């Protein structure tokens, strides 16, 4: 179910966010060998950026574990419908919440609609993000810098502020950071900086949330085959994507989602303020 770099042809998309439906080969988000065991039975999860990529796979794996899902996305409606179809295929409910997460009022509204629909909120996955290729420091545009921080960092504050009042003891906040928070990436300077901020947000929020019984953790993926790749990079860079890690291949979304299941479940009841590293074998600082 994995793919090798030589199976990834040159490709890019002019549309931002890019669409999973237009990628070749299609990312693999549902592992048929993964059998749910009610780890999240009747829980409710809100996942940002769940129309595609890692977010879609997390939504599907949560459904396999018995959770209902609210999918937040910008405007990739066809991709989001595929996520909804996949979640409902496993007998769980799914609502779609399109909108701009840079707007704090939308973030609060999305949480309110989730609670109105499902009656509760147990898991918040702050996953949505954008990235821009920046060959040098001089290529970092002020407006673009504001946009990437608003999307990748500020929205996590908005959603978490809105969600926490509805969460019960045992609930979880899970933030998607990146290998780039630990190693840096000279060509993705602003993106890597936001991912470092997310790491600090995760660690800083974990202890004060303990008094509410809420755990806060993160996942730092390596190179994963998602719409992020043909979105940010020119087609000649996308060709052969994923060679840089010890496993010498890109990860699939379905290989990342179980980390989110673990952190949301009772199996991780003694874990908070920590980050998991599904990155193809790269050793980074904890």
TrEMBL record:
SUPFAM superfamilies per UniProt: NAD(P)-binding Rossmann-fold domains
Positions with biased composition (Basic and acidic residues): 23-37
Annotated InterPro entries: NAD(P)-bd_dom_sf, Sc_DH/Rdtase_CS, SDR_fam
Amino acid composition bias (Polar residues), ranges on this chain: 1-15
Region Disordered, annotated ranges: 1-37
Keyword terms, alphabetized: Oxidoreductase
CDD domains given in the database record: SDR_c1
Entry annotated with the keyword Lyase: no
Domain of life according to the entry: Bacteria
Gene3D superfamilies: NAD(P)-binding Rossmann-like Domain
Keyword Transmembrane: no
GO MF annotations, alphabetized: oxidoreductase activity, acting on CH-OH group of donors
Pfam families for this protein: adh_short_C2 (PF13561)
Family assignment from sequence similarity: Belongs to the short-chain dehydrogenases/reductases (SDR) family.
UniProt name for this protein: SDR family oxidoreductase
């Amino acid at each position: 179910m994995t793919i090798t770099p030589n199976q990834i042809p040159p490709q890019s998309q002019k549309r931002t966010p890019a669409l999973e439906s237009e990628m070749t080969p299609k990312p693999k988000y549902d592992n048929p060998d993964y059998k749910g065991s009610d780890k999240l039975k009747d829980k409710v999860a809100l996942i940002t950026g769940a129309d595609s990529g890692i977010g879609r796979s997390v939504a599907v794996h949560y459904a396999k574990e018995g959770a209902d899902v609210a999918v937040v996305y910008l405007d990739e409606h066809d991709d989001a419908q595929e996520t909804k179809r996949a979640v409902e295929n496993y007998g769980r409910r799914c609502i779609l919440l399109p909108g701009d997460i840079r707007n704090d009022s939308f973030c609060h509204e999305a949480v309110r609609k989730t609670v109105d629909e499902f009656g509760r909120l147990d898991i918040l996955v702050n996953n949505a993000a954008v990235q821009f290729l920046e060959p040098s420091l001089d290529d970092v545009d002020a407006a673009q810098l504001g946009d990437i921080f608003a999307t990748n960092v500020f929205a996590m504050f908005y959603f978490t502020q809105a969600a926490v009042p509805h969460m019960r003891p045992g609930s979880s906040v899970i933030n998607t950071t990146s290998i780039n928070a630990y190693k840096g990436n000279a060509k993705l300077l602003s993106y890597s900086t936001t991912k470092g901020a997310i790491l600090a947000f995760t660690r800083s929020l974990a202890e004060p949330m303990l008094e509410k019984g809420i755990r806060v953790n993160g996942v730092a993926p390596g190179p994963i085959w998602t719409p992020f790749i043909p979105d940010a990079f020119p087609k000649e860079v996308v060709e052969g994507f994923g060679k840089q890690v010890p496993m010498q291949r890109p990860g699939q979304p379905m290989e990342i989602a179980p980390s989110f299941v673990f952190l949301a479940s009772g199996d991780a009841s003694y874990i908070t303020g920590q980050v998991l590293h599904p990155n193809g074998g790269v050793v980074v600082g904890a």
